[in-house]
Input
Amino acid sequence: MDTLNVGIIGTGNIAPAYIRGCAPFDVINVTACADILEDRAQAFAAEHGLAAYNVDDLLARDDIDIVVNLTLPATHAKVSLQIIEAGKHAYSEKPLAVTRADGEAIIKAAKAAGVRIGCAPDTFLGGGGQTARKAIDDGLIGAPVAATAAWLTHGHESWHPNAGFYYLEGGGPMLDMGPYYVTALINLMGPVARVSGAARMTFPERIATAEAIKGQRLPVEVNTHVAGTLEFESGAIATTIMSFDVWGNNLPMIEIHGSEGSLSVPDPNRFDGEVSVVKGGTNEWVDIPLTHSTNIGRGAGVADMAYAIQSGRPHRASGDLAFHALDVMLALEESSEQGRHIEIGSTLEQPLAAPAGLPDGELDM
Ligand SMILES: NC(=O)c1ccc[n+]([C@@H]2O[C@H](COP(=O)([O-])OP(=O)(O)OC[C@H]3O[C@@H](n4cnc5c(N)ncnc54)[C@H](O)[C@@H]3O)[C@@H](O)[C@H]2O)c1
Output
């Protein structure tokens, strides 16, 4: 197994998590970074022992195999296309793009160039997500009938030093947090056939309370509360709410209800968490021992793609999976605007389940 060199474009808030998350995997080595703010890239490089370049110079280097795109949602498509044009494998933060046309262009360009396109979230590769997947695949709750997926908060302006982008095109709770929930549901239950949604924008501006931007008025141009129904190709029906408009809630993050029982799935924005089941007729939640490592972080999807590049198998946090999730998320808001169900044009095979019991820092080739 060769080690593939990784460069990062976009050294902002989430970039340190990738340095930590990539480190345990011998199959990848983060060596370089770039940012449109060159001082920021240089400071990040100095802190993490990397080489800093401008974006063009990083993309021109022969000694970088995979480039991770950690720029903002509205820029993901442009930067991923630049990476692919440079002949490198691309791995993007979520969402893959903010329009279907851009998402399709990325997937087409990667196929034409013979490179891989991967995309966050990769949290479903964690112990929580994979244990839940195995429980369903093993028939623990019978055939999935229904699911609930809910993420409700009052937005990110209380903590994020650059929170404005969450309220502009490409932001909003559905494109921001929806990828975790919709991807987790697809991993557990397969592709979605059609959706219906209802969405609203509640506050025309937000006042930041995060220290770095305290008092700034952030204009809102996206829906900040999206509710909807997802009908899966299998026939199962999920109900979802993604909201930046809610001060407090006690809803479970994800539950899957099957013909023989119900499964409680942990936070899909994390790699760990508890999985529990209630079997029909027992009325008692019982924890299931985790079958997969929780000792992984953001970057696991990059490592999985690096193994897959070498063995030829499909990678799990794939562009196709991210495109299907994007297709579903956009359709939920379109359904609200148009007042009708929306059929989902894309489909895919469920991502490969990860083998149980691998040691920390190892994925299957
Ligand atoms: N912050 C989090 O907790 C978090 C968690 C998970 C995922 N994400 C996702 O990660 C991505 C980045 O979020 P963030 O919080 O790090 O944002 P951020 O604003 O802190 O960082 C983004 C960085 O990208 C750089 N950039 C923007 N356009 C560029 C371009 N064209 N070329 C090169 N560099 C460019 C910016 O200068 C900035 O340094 C987003 O898609 C976000 O949804 C963030």
